[in-house]
Amino acid sequence: MPGRRATDPGRSTEDKADRRARGLGWFSIGLGLAQIGAPRAVAKLIGVNDDEETRNTMFAIGLREITSGIGILSQPRPAGWVWSRVGGDLMDLALLGKALNADDSDRARVATATAAVLGVTVLDFLTGRQLSGDGSEQRADGARLRSKGSRGIEVVEAITINRPRQEVYAFWHNFENFPRFMAHLESVQVIDDRRSHWKARAPGGTGVEWDAETIEDRPNELIAWRSVSDSDVPNTGQVRFRDAPGNRGTEVIVELKYQPPGGRIGALIAKLFGEEPSQQVKSDLRRLKQVLEVGEVVHSDASIYPGPHPARPPEDLSEVELLGAQGGGF
User: Fold this and answer.
1) What pLDDT shows up at residue 207?
2) 147 Cβ contact partners less than 8 Å away, ≥ 6 residues apart
3) What is this structure's pTM?
4) Which domains does the chain carry?
């Protein structure tokens, strides 16, 4: 159940990594058998040309996958074999990148296969790091310290919302409102007056979740939080609310620091997917502005971004019928 913690957070993290490693081991063996036993079917599935060179490559990759899988399943702490999967993933991505530019490839299928491999790479890297020990420490109060040698990702973004400060604060204070304007967030469950459980989508179609606790709450001024120990995404941050100049509503300033799933490789993969952290937060704040000012998120297809994105509502809303929230909800 959300909010329940193992008596030893470090042991819980290791157990999760061990279970994930075993799953990756069986996945390696299954994939390797398919590549060796049915290379033509695999080639068709990923959209590459079926010729002798491809079949030879499939055979070699299949042997590598089976070897990695056996190595993972036969060792009590298979960190080295999991890291070998990361190296294999990078080789596969290079081959898929070459196939993506080939004239005789099905580019749509190759792109789909590339996205799948990127997602698996995140899992492999995260599992390898946890099995090896990621250099993080536990404080006396149980909070996870930032990994040594890694600054993580830091984001600071601000926006002006044409609503009273009390209303903006009340809406933000109800964390269950967040999926309404945060594109990657699936759900937030409030556990008690300090703790909440979060679920989000990560690059490559993977999912992450964590528990967070509110560490400072000054009504209509500031909310600060941090993730608790054993989180998939260690993070900390705060949001400040202040009156905007010229009676234009409320300035919202968000400061966020977090470790992306998969560390540096995870951050790189996020950028490859067009999910740059600062742009994510900026887009989320624009959606928050729309929800509070016009009652819904407005999408526009005519933009420089690939696909729909939140349009900016007008600053002067005197002629717009507002459907604003009262007391933090609609």
Assistant:
1) 73
2) 134, 135, 136, 259, 263
3) 0.48
4) 9-132 (no CATH), 153-310 (3.30.530.20)
Q: Which of 288, 306, 13 is nearest to 175 (CA)?
A: 288
Query: Confidence class of residue 91 from pLDDT cuts 50, 70 and 90?
Result: confident
Give the model confidence (pLDDT) of 126-135 as tens digits. 888 888 764 4
For residues 64 and 86, give the distance between their C-alpha atoms in angstroms, rounded to a whole number: 12
Report CA 264 to chain centroid distance, whole Å: 13
pLDDT for the residue 210: 87
Q: Find out whether 97 and 45 touch, Cβ atoms under 8 Å.
A: no
Angle between helices 107-132 and 263-272 (to 10 degrees): 160
Query: pLDDT category, 78, cuts 50, 70, 90?
Result: confident
CB-based burial of residue 183 (10 Å sphere; 0-12 exposed, 13-18 middle, 19+ buried)? middle
Give the lowest-confidence range in 77-81, 104-108, 298-302.
298-302
The sign one gets for the Cα dihedral 170, 158, 187, 291 is positive
**pLDDT above 80 (res 318):** no
φ, ψ for residue 22, nearest 5 deg? -65, -40
Cα separation, 264 vs 245, in Å, equals 39
Instruction: With H, G, I as helix, E, B as strand and everything else as coil, classify residue 221.
Output: coil
Gap between the terminal Cα atoms of the chain: 28
Round to whole Å and give the CA distance between 274 and 286.
Answer: 17
Q: Phi/psi at 150 (nearest 5 deg)?
A: -135, 120
- Read off the tokens for 141: 């109060």
Q: Rounded distance, CA 143 to CA 136, Å? A: 10
For residue 224, what are its two tokens? 């600060």
